[in-house]
Design brief:
Elements lengths: L4 H13 L2 H8 L3 H15 L4 E4 L2 E4 L1 H21 L12 E7 L1 H18 L3 E7 L7 H4 L4 E4 L8 E9 L1 E5 L12 H6 L1 E5 L8 H8 L5 E6 L2 H11 L3 E4 L4 H7 L2 E4 L7 E8 L6 H13 L1 H7 L1
Parallel strand pairs: 3-4, 3-5, 8-9
Antiparallel strand pairs: 1-2, 5-12, 6-12, 7-10, 7-11
Length: 302
């Protein structure tokens, strides 16, 4: 069988975009031309690859099974066939997808986007919300970089720990706990909101309080730190958040922070990416700009 690498490239784009029109735009092709290519792919694979559900298209089980492998094959082919050359940011045309906690997005966003606009006008950034459950999107090539607090388990995922933050209690300046000695008893007597992407109403702080024979009232959980901090500002609740990465939001909302009255492990900040990008110059540039955006973090946690 004659192997056409263009079909693999088209298949990769189709499985990334889940849309003929989106993949065509990405490949600078017309939608009818890519639709014909999809027809060829279907005949060769014996699978529909993408099927229409209402107004959207969804991948078939076979397409989901091969998506990561197809992406890897296309990347390896490009590495083999493209000549070795330096990175030209002025002509770089690429979309990077970055997934992370909302506080991280807020912290890195201004600096990162300023660098992109100034240095790489052909680059676009997708800032994606933290997933509600663990995913393999780095492995499958749907996300270029994840920023979180845990080191990856998969051996093919590279990572770098930027630094460590500490949890603090955030509260309004007029809150009763804003002044005086914040003891564990006073902390536990306050009403709290916690950050949980899964909607949990307990976290490690409750275990620590239990060890001190204390119990707090958690009024609510919020899926993001931004939402929790806003509700703390509006409702007079207390919320524990990483101090430095949440600093921009804390400043805008006018919230005060207090050290927690008990010891908790520091919160790491970890960059993770698939090892296929270890030597990718454009990806290395992106990682560098994110490190620049988090330079304050390295300083305060050194």
């Amino acid at each position: 069988m004659h192997l056409d690498l263009n079909l693999l490239t088209a298949l990769d784009a189709l499985l990334e975009e889940n849309s003929v029109a989106g993949a065509a735009e990405r490949l600078n092709l017309s939608a009818p031309a890519l639709s014909r290519t999809l027809g060829r792919i279907r005949r060769i694979t014996g699978d529909q690859i993408l099927v229409r559900t209402g107004r959207t298209m969804v991948p078939t089980p076979h397409a989901l099974a091969i998506r990561g492998e197809v992406h890897d094959l296309v990347q390896r082919a490009r590495e083999v066939l493209e000549p070795e050359r330096g990175l030209d940011l002025a002509t770089l045309n690429r979309v990077f997808s970055i997934r992370g906690h909302d506080a991280v997005t807020t912290a890195i966003g201004p600096s990162l986007l300023a660098a992109v606009r100034e240095q790489a006008p052909g680059v676009s950034i997708r800032l994606l919300a933290e997933a509600s459950s663990d995913t393999n999107e780095l492995r499958h090539g749907r996300v270029d970089l994840e920023i979180g607090s845990t080191e990856p388990d998969l051996p093919e995922i590279s990572h770098a720990t930027i630094g460590h933050d500490r949890l603090v209690a955030a509260l309004r300046p007029d809150h009763p706990c804003a002044d005086g000695d914040l003891t564990a008893e006073r902390f536990a007597q306050a009403d709290h909101i916690i950050v949980s992407r899964r909607g949990r109403l307990k976290d490690p702080i409750d275990e620590t309080l239990q060890g001190l024979r204390l119990r707090r009232r958690v009024v609510a959980s919020a899926p993001t730190s931004t939402a929790a901090l806003y509700l703390a500002a509006e409702s007079g609740l207390v919320v524990a958040v990483p101090e430095h990465v949440c600093e921009p939001t804390l400043r805008v909302l006018g919230l005060r922070t207090r050290p927690l009255p008990f010891d908790l492990p520091p919160v790491p900040l970890v960059l993770a990416w698939h090892q296929r990008y270890d030597n990718d110059k454009a990806h290395a540039w992106l990682r560098g700009r994110i490190r620049d955006a988090l330079a304050f973090y390295e300083q305060v946690t050194a």
